[in-house]
Each structure stands twice: as C-alpha cells, then as structure tokens.
Amino acid sequence: MGVLDFVFYGFTTVVIIQVIFYLFIFGRFAFLKQNKSTTKNLAVSVIICAKNEAENLKKNLPSVINQNYSDFEIVLINDASSDNTLDVIEHFSSLHSNIKIVNVKSIEAFWGNKKYALTLGIKAAKNDYLLFTDADCKPISKYWIQDMTAHFSSKKSIVLGYGAYKKIKNSLLNKLIRFETFSTAINYFSFAKIGLPYMGVGRNLAYTKKSFFDANGFINHIKIRSGDDDLFINQIATSQNTAISFNKNSFTESIPKTTFKNWFKQKRRHVSTAKHYKMKHKVLLTLLYVSAFLFWLFALTLLIPLFNWQIVLGLLLFRIVTQYIILGVASKKLGETDLLLILPFLEIFLIIAQLSIFITNIISKPNHWK
C-alpha cells in the first residue's frame, strides 16, 4: 500500500468527520427556529468598559441610551484612559440620570487588566441582570436590551448574542473578518444547542450578577489578561443555564479592522485564551480545525496526481455541498449571506491565518487590552 493510499483513507475519514460536524452539530443551529420570547421587563444594568474610547463612545453610546426599554441603567467604566474618555462619560452622565460612572485608577497588581475594571463595574451595578457590550459597538436595534434579556428565566442565567462587524464594500479583508466572526458564532451557538456551551463574546453577552459572584468572578483566570468573556463563560456555562439569542434585533455591530496587521494582532489575543478552555471543548475544536485543514491538504494531494480522482472529487463535492447548505441557512439567520459567494476561498484563507496565529503565539506572547 503506497503513501497515496494512506492519504486517500485519511481523506475519506476527515470528510466523514467534517460532515458529522456540519449535519449533527452546526445543523442544530442552522435549522433551529427562534422561539418568540416574552418581554420580561427585568431591571437591567448595561455594562461598558472603555479604555481610550472617547470617539467611539460619542458615536455609539446614544444607541444604548435610546433603547426602548423601561428599566435599565448604563454602567460606564473608565479604565485608566489617557485620552478624554472620562470627560465624554461625564458629559453623557450629566444629560442622563440612568448613567453610572466607575472611574478605575491603574494599580500595579492589575495594570492593563480589563477583568479588574469589569469587576469594579459589576460590583457597582445595581441590578442583577447584566448585559455587556464594548465601547466600539452599537446595538443595531432599539430593542437590543429587550431581545437579549427576554431569554433569561429561572433556569437560564447566561445569554449568548451575536456581535457582527459592519460590511465594507469591495473589501476582501472585511469579508475574511466577518467570515471568521460568523464561523465562531456558528460554533458557540451550535455547541450551546447540543449542551456544550463553551464561549461568548463580550460585544454582546448577558449573565446574572449572582452567576458572577457564585463563581468568584474572574479569580480563576485573573492572571490571564484576556478572556473576560470566553474564559468566564467556559467556566460557568452548562447545558442547563445557557440560552442563545439570534433575533436580528439582538445583534450588535462593530467597525472591523482595516488592515490585516491590526486584525492579526487582535486575533492573536483572542486565540491565546483557547488553550485554557475545558478539555472536552479543546478536543472538539481541535478536531474541527485539524479535519478542515487536512480536508483541503489531502484533497489537493490526491487531485494533483489524479489518484482515484472520481471518488475524491465526489467526496470533495459532497462535503462542500453539505457545508453550503448548512452555512447558507445559518447565514440567513445572522445576515451574512454575501459570504457564500467565495466560501471555499474564505475557508482556506482562514485556515492558513489561524495556523499562522497559532505558530506566532508559540514564538511570542500577544499583547492584551490597551
């Protein structure tokens, strides 16, 4: 049996693995119907941590202030900013009585650690239901608070939302950034639906103050500067306490990076926390990435010399068609249908980028928070 025979059997195996992921895991989210949630009018604290975000707050904070919701406060955390972020926060506070300011001074023990600033903000919040977003984000609807908090119940203490990136025409980098965000969202929504929630994004995330203090806050990973969102959710989320919200009114939107260098730097920070996930999550996520990487590597290895090319091409098309169907349905839910036009290219590019990030993070540690 030659080398190409082994590659062929390996290719068949990874196709099976990939199809299982798409049909039985991602399909759970793709074909899920959004249940109509009853508005609960819970008292909510919206928490925004800002470090040198004066201009973003000017643009985005009005979208939070003008939410159509009866009972909410906004906790604005100034995390030792060196610009006029505090001045902007104080200006908004003078105009709106439901804004609370938490001015964090930098201390040596927690220098540059967003978790310290967030902890002070959470402690200052008067309400038990907490909804998080970032200063560079804005809700796309005035019903954001209503739709996100509608999923809280006596059993559900965590709500995972979608933090989209703004579309920029004729930008390949923009499509890559949005595809990575879209893929990540499908992962954490789908894993939550099969009872294995493993992360959320701080751009759009809600949980109760009780959940935070029952887990002793961020203490288990306080020395890891990133992960105030995904590591905390990885720690406390279970099949019973986690809900997802994918109604378009519940989305937030951010302005994406405009250079590959800046995006690469940002993703290095995000990816660095994955090694601290629970083992079952690391195994599944690793299997997902490795099988996708080997799928394209083995396909090219076999098709170039035309080894069993009819079978290889059939398996290749079977997996791609399966992917298109599942991601096509999911993309309608998340408003990302334009990504399908160059799906194979985006997937291959992202696989290579993620491999580069992984290797770079091994060589040097990424910088965290601002």
Commentary on this structure:
InterPro entries: Glyco_trans_2-like, Nucleotide-diphossugar_trans. The chain is an alpha/beta fold. It folds into two domains: 3-30 and 280-363, no CATH class; 44-259, Spore Coat Polysaccharide Biosynthesis Protein SpsA, Chain A (Alpha-Beta Complex), CATH 3.90.550. 51% of the residues lie in helices and 12% in strands. The chain contains twelve helices and ten strands. It has helices spanning 3-30, 54-65, 85-95, 114-124, 144-149, 172-193, 209-214, 230-236, 260-271, 279-303, 309-334, 343-363, and strands at residues 44-50, 72-79, 99-104, 129-134, 137-139, 158-160, 163-165, 205-208, 242-244, 252-254. The chain has a seven-stranded mixed beta sheet with strand order 3-2-1-4-8-6-9, sandwiched between helices. Strands 5-10-7 form a three-stranded mixed beta sheet. Helix 2 packs parallel to helix 3 and helix 9 crosses helix 12. The chain is elongated, with a radius of gyration of 22 Å.
